[in-house]
Amino acid sequence: MHRPLTKALAAQTAGLILVYALSRNGILPNMALVWLACLQGALAAIVSMLLLAPCWWGAIHLAFMPAIILASLLQQPVAVYVCGFFLLLLTYWTSFRTQVPLFLSNHVTVHRLAAWLSDNKPQKVLDVGSGTGSFALRLARLRPDWSVTGIESAPAPYALSRWLGRQTPNLCLLRADFWEHSLSGYDVVYAFLSPVPMPALWAKALREMRPGSLLISNSFTIENARDVEILRIDDRRATHLFVYRIPEIKRK
Ligand SMILES: C[S@@+](CC[C@H](N)C(=O)[O-])C[C@H]1O[C@@H](n2cnc3c(N)ncnc32)[C@H](O)[C@@H]1O
């Protein structure tokens, strides 16, 4: 069982079945529904660990069922939950498949990278997965002489970035899947994604980018790529930027 969503479903179901079996057989004392939900969450978190899911799934399992029970106690109109669901859907879109959630580059990182890149004199910069434009928009404003492109698949962050960047002529934002977009023609490709897509992104960069151009990954290394330069950013999360230069002789 490899897919994270399948593991999550299996863990939640196992938690439910175990709690049902325990109370059916009189092993559990009479408990309020919210405590049963907490027990279900704890059991689901244990099953998730046994299935070798990443450890942060444990926190989600612990909170999931208690949150549903507490939300039902609040007795809000159904429309509140429907709106919440659609807002999350439009924001996170295919995160369950791509395993790339939305989090944003901070301004210290963008300023530091813009200063560092000035020596390389890039003409064209691409942000793969541009979110709300935290990186692409800031960079385009900092360097009006560079052409900055951002590609984002999730509708809500994309719409927000379009609105925020409406008066930035050197910024081009596309709502698309970056895997379908050629990386050739860019001097710098910036990625702030997750560990999951990095090997495939490196393979794509090797196929499409010209030698000497740069693939820069915020926080996530590429295991099979050598010759990495590391920029340490002096921000609160001590960001590391991993700079990979596309070699003359391309090896995967
Ligand atoms: C961690 S956020 C980074 C946002 C922005 N680059 C920044 O640094 O602030 C990653 C974004 O990539 C988007 N994304 C993931 N896979 C994508 C794909 N295949 N095509 C386009 N966008 C994608 C996600 O929707 C998410 O908004």
Description of the structure:
The protein has about 250 residues and is of the alpha/beta class. It has two domains: about 70 residues; about 140 residues, 3-Layer(aba) Sandwich (Rossmann fold). The protein has nine helices and seven strands, in the order H-H-H-H-H-H-E-H-E-H-E-E-H-E-E-E. It has a seven-stranded mixed sheet. It starts with a helix and ends in a 7-residue tail after the last strand. The site of S-adenosylmethionine has 23 residues, from strand 2.
What layout of secondary structure does this protein have?
Elements: H1 4-24, H2 33-50, H3 56-74, H4 78-92, H5 95-98, H6 107-117, E1 124-128, H7 136-142, E2 147-152, H8 155-164, E3 171-175, E4 188-191, H9 198-208, E5 214-218, E6 228-232, E7 240-245
Parallel strand pairs: 1-2, 1-4, 2-3, 4-5
Antiparallel strand pairs: 5-7, 6-7
Helix pairs in contact: 1-2, 2-3
Bound molecules: S-adenosylmethionine.
Give structural attributes.
252 residues, alpha/beta, Rossmann fold, 2 domains, seven-stranded mixed β-sheet, 46% helix, binds S-adenosylmethionine
Provide a concise account of the structure shown.
With 252 residues, this protein is an alpha/beta fold. It has 2 domains: 4-75; 107-245, Rossmann fold. It is built from 9 helices and 7 strands.
Bound molecules: S-adenosylmethionine
- Residue-averaged pLDDT: 93
Distance between the termini: 28 Å
Structural class comes to: alpha/beta
How many beta-strand elements?
A: 7
Uncertain spans: none
Return the CATH topology of the largest domain.
Rossmann fold
